[in-house]
Amino acid sequence: MSLYAELHRHLGGSVVPRVLWRYFHRSQSDLAQRFPEYPEFEEFYTRPRKTLDEYLELHTLVENVQSAKTLPYFIYRLIRGAYIFENLAYLELRYTPYLRTPDHLPQTERIDQMAQIVEIVGQASQLSEYPIVTSQILCMHSRLPYAVNRAIVELSAQNRTYVCGIDLAGGDAYYAERLDEFTELYAYARSLGLNTTGHVYETTDGSYPELLPYLMRIGHGIQIPLRYPELLPELAQQNQCLEVCPTTYLKTGTLEDIRQLKLVFDRCFEAGVDIAICTDNAGLHNVRLPFEYENLLTYDVIGFKELQACQDAAFKHAFAWPHRQRPASILTEVLREDEKVSEPAQSVVN
């Protein structure tokens, strides 16, 4: 049995369409009246969008219902599905805690409530019947004020039990006018010893070389091998890993065909840059991690040797995986020990 690591999954986009549709109907939401039947809702929720901005609007649909009260409901179903259907041994969930607090409260009160959200997500993720190693990445947001983003960095440093790193999300086209601010926040995070990743080089609007020195992993990053391959040797030298989410680029209009990713993988392998294959928004795409693997193989983007290298890279670059080996190696050693114990004792010839 293969066990996998997922390094790039958003809490907002992780809710599968049927679970979300059932929640809307149980809570008598306006969306229940708009979509009385499930197939219409699934088509609306999972269809491709023209731009990243249009795609990100769907996150607000889920963020508005993921509150302190409802988060355990969604997370239980998320972890259950990840364990049963995806064979995940390790999962990093990323989200912006501020966006799970009541939006009618003053900013200072919402900042104060973020710690409770982190605690709820952390506790809800610990399910004995579905033993997955989980951790959280807290996302700064390109449309949130500096004070909120700084508080997110500080909360991450204060809650290392549940938080393994920080991210920057919200649409990469909006970084430019605040680039100095985000550079400062990343430098602050590194000074606190935090692990870092960030949504950069996802689209043609997201090229920010100024942020690269502060990132241990790169959220997406596909435009580097596609448009700036001269940067790859430095990424390899710095041991930076790309978090590539194949279905996302088709859903956001960033790429027209999944086969365009072949150049991404080929150039990264040639330069010695690791890639972890991820889902990004498994629920929003209605595509789980093993299907991402299968699609890449089906369209000859990668072969089985490259797939295994990417699976190894995911555990290698995981911020909170507590073992030196990936699960397959650990299981192999356990089985070998069991075989030694079960071997019949050799008879002694006098």
Features of the shown structure:
single chain, alpha/beta, TIM Barrel, four-stranded parallel beta sheet, 8 strands, 48% helix, globular
Care to describe what's here?
The chain has helices spanning 17-26, 30-34, 38-46, 52-63, 71-86, 107-124, 146-158, 179-191, 223-227, 232-237, 246-251, 261-271, 282-285, 289-298, 304-316, 327-342; strands spanning 4-10, 88-95, 133-141, 163-169, 199-200, 217-220, 241-244, 275-277. The chain is an alpha/beta fold. The chain has a single domain, classed as Metal-dependent hydrolases (TIM Barrel), CATH 3.20.20.140. The strands form two sheets. A four-stranded parallel sheet has the order 1-2-3-4. The chain has a four-stranded parallel sheet with strand order 5-6-7-8. Helix 5 (71-86) packs parallel to helix 6 (107-124) and helix 7 runs parallel beside helix 8 (179-191). The longest helix has 18 residues, at 107-124. It is globular, with a radius of gyration of 21 Å. The mean pLDDT is 92.
